[in-house]
Amino acid sequence: MQQNHVISIPKVAGYDTQRNSSTQTEISDEVITNNGFFPDVQLVNIRNAMRIDGTVTDERLKHSVISAMATVNKDLKNYREQAQSNNKNTLAECNDEQINGLSLDVYNYLRAVYCLAVANLYERYRSYDSTKEGHDKSAELENTADDLKRDYHFAVRDILGGNRMISELV
Question: What pTM does this model have?
Answer without folding.
Answer: 0.77
